[in-house]
User: Fold this.
Amino acid sequence: MSMRVTVNRELCVGSGNCVATLQEVFDQDDRDGLVWLRVAEPPESLRELVEKAVQLCPVGAIEAERRTTAR
Amino acid sequence: MPNIDISTLPAYPFIGPEDNPFIPVKSSDLERLDGSVGKVRLPFGGWAWLITRHEDVRQLLRHPGFSSDQYRPGFPVLNPIPPKQDDASGLFIFMDGEAHGRLRRMLTAEFMIKNIRRIEPLIEETVIEALERMRSLGAPADLMAEFALPVPSMTVCHLLGVPYSDHDFFQHHSRVIMDRNSGPAQIEEALGALAGLIGKLAEAKRTAPEDDLLSRLMIERVVPGELRIDELVSMAMLLLVAGHETTANMIGLSALVLLEHPEHLAALRENPDLAPGMVEELLRYLTVVRTGLPRLALEDAEIGGQTIRAGEGVVAMLAMSNRDGVVFPEPEQFDPERREAHRHMAFGFGLHQCIGQPLARAELRVALVELARRFPGLRSETALADVPQRPMAVTFGVAELPVTW
Ligand code: HEM
Ligand code: SF4
Assistant:
């Protein structure tokens, strides 16, 4: 099972909290310092840290939704 | 606005008891507050809603209907503000919307964690130099003057790209700005001298750019016409002012906490990897921006069940939300192992959340680790109750911290 994460670069203010929380998933663009995703569908094992990043983002630019592979 | 008898409201900013710098609000003030969102009387006239719960402060600071522009009529002013001047053109901390985003986004890449790592060796050098200088002056020494104050201003020097030959000039004038004994005219003069230096350096970097913030903004923004030179100078001054007193007071108060809890100072000496967690808890526990963050409502909004009307002022009381028991169990306890410490809002929240936080964290971490390592016998010369405080400054701190070793 994996989870889908989306980021909104329009909202991002480059605080870097997400990168500090989970470098495997989040990074900042070298040119503008705004967020980008290394992995759009991180494994379920990272859920707790992804949710921490969602909570710490000061502008609500990160969303995580559950995606089940089973239909 | 309904008629309110302002004289009966609790006077704000609150200050803590004189004998304990770690308590942000006196219990007598807490008792007078009318619920988690209550009215307080402001120091320069008028009143504002004080927002105290963690969840409500988060909601407020993320709400698009509140302005940071302290020059708008009705803004809940907490500190005396200078008349609007031309040299305020880069102070995006007081701007809203597009104007704020335009300038902040020119700096976000500079403060990325990976770029801060590049200047970390310079921070280490600065910290070690200041500590060894303090040692050579001999005990007792004032840790505020010899260590807490010079480290952040030197760090801003490195960040901006102030050359070695101008360091003394920069340090001297930064010190005057932060000195509680400086009069308004002296501060004005020191600010002018620093702005003059930054303008001169920026011009020099136009033809001889180096690997620093001023050079990059000059070449990438000013030369192509995206940024005016006065905006660049004013932004650089904002970085100095916003990054100096805050970080200096955090270093000083953190040292005081560790002197009061020698077991944590010893633990840090044994295991420097404890530093990042300890720094988060210190940021929460100390919350140096004690007067909180003022905002003006531009539209009607509901915060914490209270309707705030357009035109009313609010203050996000960071020090109280960082002690909200709903989020931080036993909030009055300093606990470096606290799991939820990172949820503090000592750097604010929302669009204006501190852009300098990766730098501030690096400075605090390096400063505390080296202090613990190099001064194993560090002791305070003064009882906690007698350490002189600076309660009414923009950021809270101690005026001096005499130590011996
Ligand atoms: C421990 C030290 C620090 C603390 C506690 C702190 C705290 C804060 C807070 C609470 C805000 C939000 C203000 C608001 O929302 O109105 C802020 C904004 C800001 N800080 Fe810091 N700060 C620290 C260090 C630094 C450093 C080292 C720098 C840069 C060198 C810096 C530069 C800024 C700037 C430029 C802003 C304005 C951001 C914006 O408006 O978008 N700060 N800081
Ligand atoms: S935490 Fe939010 S604002 Fe900060 S860099 Fe990540 S996405 Fe951007």
